[in-house]
Amino acid sequence: MKKLLALSLCLAAAVALAFAEDAKPAADAQAAPAAAPEVNADLSYSIGMLFGNNIKSAGLQINPDNFLAGVMDVVNGKTPKYTLEQAQGAIQTALMAIQQKKAADNLAAGNAFLDGNKKKAGVKVTASGLQYEVLAEGKGAKPKSDDTVKVNYEGKLLNGTVFDSSIQRGEPAVFPLDGVIPGWTEAIQLMPVGSKYRLYVPSNLAYGEAGAGNVIEPNSVLIFEVELLSIEPKPAPDAGEAAPADQPKN
Q: What's the pTM?
């Protein structure tokens, strides 16, 4: 939301500046008869295209006549209908309404998916609501919540969009279990090393109402295929530090 507001304001300033620069007479031609400024058709179209792209990507519905009137009032130096603060407030209100609708729609779609998915053969459900399938069961140790693990994984949205993949990057990921989303922290502790699970992570165990970036919308259910490769060794204590058991007692 903040990025859209900032970019819209920057574009508005660019439009005003471009028109103002076009309207200035050349320094060495001030005595010549005034001529109508040349309109740069490519620039005009490009600015309009950028505005349109931001409006569409944000999901905003606008009235083209009112939109153009707002642009031209600023460009022509007229007093705008609203103050800058009022305009920003109107955009923020509209964007919040869009986000709230997305969150509600995604929550309903996610709940419907999970309700149907848990009835499928092989799908297990934990007390938290996490769902998972065992694709391959390893024989190694199971990680603890304070362990660091190495995994290969791929994450998808319900529509099949891949939003993250160590497989595509060609390099396994290493991370502490207490530094990831709750659904991962719980699920990977269920997996012996060498296992491969498919996880169905409810939004409250993933990124919740906030979502993540421009891809994971609010209240999104996430699907992961995760292969647990290893539990990483814990770092040895510094040589100059005594281990806790060896510290002197008072």
A: 0.71
pLDDT tens per residue, range 104-163: 999 999 999 999 999 999 999 999 999 999 999 999 999 999 999 999 999 999 999 999
Note whether residue 6 is domain-resident.
Answer: no
* 140: in domain: yes
Round to whole Å and give the CA distance between 18 and 103.
39
The per-residue pLDDT for 238 is 62
**Residue 99: inside a domain:** no
The answer to whether the CB of 125 falls within 8 A of the CB of 199 is: no
In a domain, 136, yes or no: yes
Phi and psi, residue 58, nearest 5°: -85, -10
Angstrom distance (rounded) from CA 156 to CA 225: 9
Give dist(CA 52, CA 61) in Å, integer: 11
> CA-to-CA distance for 154 and 43, rounded, in angstroms?
42
Which has more pLDDT, 138 or 19?
138
**Nearest to 201, CA basis, from 145, 104, 125:** 125
Q: Contact 190/127 with Cβ under 8 angstroms?
A: no
CATH number at residue 167: 3.10.50.40
Per the structure, how many domains does the chain have? 1
Among residues 204, 207, 200, 203, the alpha carbon closest in space to that of 223 is found at 200
In sequence order, the β-bridge partners of residue 196 are: 136, 227
- Angle at alpha carbon of residue 77, lines to 62 and 88, rounded to 5°: 40
User: According to the model, what pLDDT value does residue 242 have?
Assistant: 47
Q: Which domain holds residue 196?
A: 125-231
